[in-house]
């Protein structure tokens, strides 16, 4: 694998950029693999990478119906944080955050992780109480989170409008300083490149159309638009399409798929130093390295498989943003798009074995799975390799919806309700 360093980039710049290699191969599918991963988003690619790098399982294929990272991985607003309420969530999101901190070095690929701080604004008494509860719960779990007064919010993020009579007054905010953003495409490409170098086959334009099971019930392979492929272990990581794919194996999951939208403005000079989230009004803002304001909105009200949402949803978000940051009234919006998010009843993911032998599922990350990408991939790889859950993902079963051991993160997931 070509090594990247400051020196190698300089050398390439001075020698006409002629020596760049393909970042991953484009192999034909083999007749069979030890493990097939369905879905070439960040979570699927991370799973394949950790299977090969940490668990020694290298005969792996990632099957992607489109292009890698073309699903939610390439459509999200890239907010990374671990300030969820419950111990189980703290475990999995903090595991991910720690991996983010060394990911560029591990992959030798700059994922542009930028811990610039995530500030969650409180607009009413309920928000204040709920966020303070999160601050205390997080600190008990060793996760950084602190409460800021309105004046401290303004000091941390000067463009915010914290005074005057506002429809959505800012009563304070919860700040996770280690939170931030990363470059979503680079995450998919970095994992793909590193997995490929370890022998994983990444097969794009290969839609899984069926999951084959033996008469005794266990999985034996998949049917795809590029032929049938055998495997005794299959991991489904298909985000908004998970219900459809799992149906192919006869497994029903408690999931609903909703469109979730984002938009970007024209690029402007650096003005916005951190990430601001306003869960109450469904508005999420950060500034990209190109200078665009990256804005997230809420989910649509209706379930759907369209990768775009209702205009009134983004209008509502922009109304609120113009009040929170009056300077943005003069910004023009460049483009908007939608992704398909898979939402569970308790707004927590499922990362688990299924009732079908050899079939594993990683889904239900809903509106908030980008931040979990490294941690999710690592624990899912462990679950597939050992055929038993890792202690971090053990609580995130399908059975919790039958047994009642739910992990209610509706307040932390924010966008999903
Ligand atoms: P995906 O990247 O969607 O990958 C699944 C892949 O499976 C897709 O590429 C799809 O093509 C493929 N697939 C589906 N069916 C098949 C099939 N039959 N055969 C083969 N391949 C198939 N999370 C955050 O943490 N922070 C945020 O700020 C944030 N903002 C968001 C904003 C928006 C607008 C959206 C839509 C989501 C946001 N999220 C955010 C959520 C986050 O993007 C997702 O939870 C996460 O990216 C899911 O990753 P994934 O790899 O599971 O899914
Ligand atoms: O999970 O932090 C998040 C998020 C922000 C916008 C969409 N999801």
From TrEMBL:
<comment type="similarity">
    <text>Belongs to the SoxB family.</text>
</comment>
<keyword id="KW-0288">FMN</keyword>
<dbReference type="Pfam" id="PF01266">
    <property type="entry name" value="DAO"/>
</dbReference>
<dbReference type="GO" id="GO:0000166">
    <property type="term" value="F:nucleotide binding"/>
</dbReference>
<keyword id="KW-0963">Cytoplasm</keyword>
<dbReference type="GO" id="GO:0008115">
    <property type="term" value="F:sarcosine oxidase activity"/>
</dbReference>
<keyword id="KW-0547">Nucleotide-binding</keyword>
<dbReference type="GO" id="GO:0046653">
    <property type="term" value="P:tetrahydrofolate metabolic process"/>
</dbReference>
<dbReference type="InterPro" id="IPR006278">
    <property type="entry name" value="SoxB"/>
</dbReference>
<protein>
    <recommendedName>
        <fullName>Sarcosine oxidase subunit beta</fullName>
        <ecNumber>1.5.3.24</ecNumber>
    </recommendedName>
</protein>
<feature type="domain" description="Rhodanese">
    <location>
        <begin position="35"/>
        <end position="79"/>
    </location>
</feature>
<keyword id="KW-0285">Flavoprotein</keyword>
<keyword id="KW-0560">Oxidoreductase</keyword>
<dbReference type="GO" id="GO:0005737">
    <property type="term" value="C:cytoplasm"/>
</dbReference>
<dbReference type="InterPro" id="IPR006076">
    <property type="entry name" value="FAD-dep_OxRdtase"/>
</dbReference>
<dbReference type="InterPro" id="IPR036188">
    <property type="entry name" value="FAD/NAD-bd_sf"/>
</dbReference>
<dbReference type="InterPro" id="IPR001763">
    <property type="entry name" value="Rhodanese-like_dom"/>
</dbReference>
<keyword id="KW-0274">FAD</keyword>
